[in-house]
Amino acid sequence: MTEETLSMLTLNLVPGLGPVRISRLLKAFGSASEILRAAPLALSRVEGMGSPLCEALFHARKTSHPEAECERARTFGAKILSLTDSEYPALLLQMTAPPPILYIWGNLQDRDRHAIAMVGARSPTPYGAECAKKLSFQLAYSGVTIVSGLARGIDSFAHQGALAAQGRTIAVLGSGLCRIYPSENNHLAERIASSFGAVLSELPMLTVANRQTFPARNRIISGLSLGTLVVEAGIKSGALITAHAAVEQGRSVYAIPGRIDRPQSAGSNALIQQGAKLVGCAQDILDDFSLLFREPPSLPQPAEPPGLSTEQRKIFSLLGSEALHLDVLASQAKLSVAAASSVLLSMELEGVVKQLPGRRFIRILRHSEVRIK
Asked: 242 exposed, middle or buried (CB, 10 Å; 0-12, 13-18, 19+)?
């Protein structure tokens, strides 16, 4: 690790300093190393640098322990990147105040510059959950990296959909890597880091998430992406913070329309009213991304799973992205309700369909059931 990266890490460990002040200091002094050599009086001439913070920064070279933080990251299995490292994501460098330090568990790839952020409600409707899983699967399978925040709800479904497609996904934390939140997503984080993506944070390894860290991490989610897709969001959802950050960064904003009587749709519907592109299918986003690829990506198309009986094939051909009621399926398949129910039960046990509340059924999109055009 270079002296400049160690110096940047030292700055990142100073409480209260933050990316905005560090960006101002870098502009004033030219490098992290020069910032640490500066006297308190010189530091105080930079906007936002009060006396206590100047003193803390002046003494940081003695009180901070960047080597211990490096060892903590190494033991965890993560690596540390600073603004000056060649591997630092180019899209983040376009931000006004990019994170001075990134802790990365897993790996970043050059192809991750073709990324879409997918965010939304922590308590989504079944419709929202299915949209997140389906679209993330299709986009990831087409070569687009899915970026989200590892939160409950839409974020988790977005990561899971990308993993199911064996595509790329990046999780951005509002905590340090040693304090993954929520804790029930520890296993999901391990899957991402060990297979098709990376888990990253700008915060020191032992940082515990709080109300301030989540809005701050949202700007990184949008910053890593060419656009942000809001699947479902309430009127005060944190997903809207990510969308607004995307606008400030000059990135595209997309939203999936929802029912007007559902509070989970109020925020995403409002984004469409404000000019976000309405997304009805993954191809709407792929069309925007088509110039980024040598061969324009296309939407994965469902293929009939092998081994289906005649009745199962009838049911499968009728099901799509929209849930259908048992009575409708029975009528269109020219089966009795009892017979259709029996066929659907066998398909559900085989993982081909899923039953939703109200005796409605939807086809499950799986990696083995799709192909690229």
From this structure: buried
Supply 143's token pair. Answer: 């070569």
- DSSP H or E run through 200: strand 197-201
pLDDT at 352: 85
Measured at the CA of 159, the angle between CA 85 and CA 95, to 5 degrees, comes to 35
Q: How far is CA 295 from CA 111, 132, 292, in A?
A: 14, 25, 9
> Within the chain, which residues score under 70 in pLDDT?
291-303, 320-322, 365-373
Predicted local confidence at residue 362, as pLDDT = 81
Q: Tell me whether residue 236 is exposed, middle or buried, using C-beta atoms within 10 angstroms of its C-beta: 0 to 12, 13 to 18, 19 or more.
A: exposed
pLDDT of residue 370: 37
**Which helix or strand (DSSP H or E) is residue 255 part of?**
strand 252-255
Q: Give the Cα separation of 325 and 337 in Å (integer).
A: 11
At residue 128, the 3 state secondary structure works out as: helix
pTM (two decimals): 0.80
- Closest alpha carbon to 202 in 193, 213, 188: 213
Torsional sign, CA 19, 20, 25, 26: positive
Taking residue 100's Cβ as centre, other Cβ atoms within 10 Å add up to 25
Identify the structural domains of the chain with CATH numbers, from first to last: 1-64 (1.10.150.20), 110-292 (3.40.50.450), 301-371 (1.10.10.10)
Model pLDDT, residue 305: 78
pLDDT at residue 372, as a whole number: 31
